[in-house]
Amino acid sequence: MKLTRTLLIASAAAALLASCGEKNADAGASTAASVSTDVLSNGMTALETYELRHEAMEEIGDAFKSIADATRSSNPDLAVVRAAADTVADKAPQVGEWFPVGSSAASGVDTDALDTIWERPEEFADAVVQFENAAPKLQAAAQSGDMSAVGDAFKEVGASCKNCHETFRADDD
Amino acid sequence: MTTDRNHTLVTIFDPALRLFHWGAAVLIPVLWWTAENGHYDWHRRIGLTMLGLVIFRILWGFIGPATARFGEFVKGPGAILNYVQNLGRPYHPAAGHNPLGALSVIALIAVLAAQTSLGLFAVDVDGIESGPLSHLVSFDTGREAAELHETNFKILTVLIVLHLGAIAFYRFGLGANLIPSMITGKRRAKPEDEIVFPVMRFMVAAAIAVVAVMAIVL
Predict the structure, then answer these.
(1) pTM (2 decimals)?
(2) Per the CB < 8 Å rule, is A158 touching B139?
(3) Which of A55, A108, B81, B115 is 20–30 Å from B74 (CA)?
(4) Are B134 and A60 within 8 A, CB to CB?
(5) Does the interface predicted TM-score (ipTM) exceed 0.90?
């Protein structure tokens, strides 16, 4: 913690100095530099944070697709469903840590995360909790092997994804 | 001039061709709306219907009546150039698609075929909603299909705007209203331009289209 704080202060100071010294320099260039050097509260840079959450979200999407495929299949592979549900349940408790202050689009990362995440932190936390609560149900349903239960739990988790993305992520489609 | 012979209303566009046309005209905006508002169950059902119509239209382009057949109405660059050079008032509409409009027809059908095919494999960013054949591809490939589905829709939109612009040009620039013949199938033309509806061939093309779509769903 102490190291993190020291680093934070140091990087803030560096950013300040940099901004003083680079008044006339290209603003885009200085953003690009800080995105991969300034350390956030999670001990990572904004770029590292973005890459971590982006890849993890894609893993969740990938896992979700395999469950969606299985719910439509007449002969679903339960091992695949269980592995996918495990992935979702493993990632769910981490989501809250993926959005530290300073990792918004303003930091320079190419993210679809909206500023509303940091403007309405309590609402965002509630939306994340909804996902955290739904994910273990999907995992339990997958373990039971009852595909209709998987289908129901899948819908609940899917609703939590949509609920959060509606307010806190830029429209993709 | 042959205008004196073009005084009778004859059927130049068969009912199946017109059904395809107006089906697309209604379904495309509905498909856009359902996707935009997240009604993917309906988007899939209507998209499959659109795919069936496109499959039918492509078959009809080979076994349908003359005005539906690609080999009949698609002309070479010379014929298109000649047509464009002679565009002017008074304008007498062709007994079917004209050589320039033929390009629009081909482009629209091709882009619609691509659009419905891409939709089969498309996967949304959350991995929740996906096309009926998306289980055959990976998440990443499904995402690429979805991106192309979106880009291709923009191309489709441009083609539709061009299509509507052309109709407006013929109407207000050349004084020819092309819309009624796509509704009634009839246009003033030579009696020998009258097309006959091939019922058996229609049954074959429609059956193939239905079976193809059923094969995708089941």
Answers:
(1) 0.81
(2) no
(3) B115
(4) no
(5) no
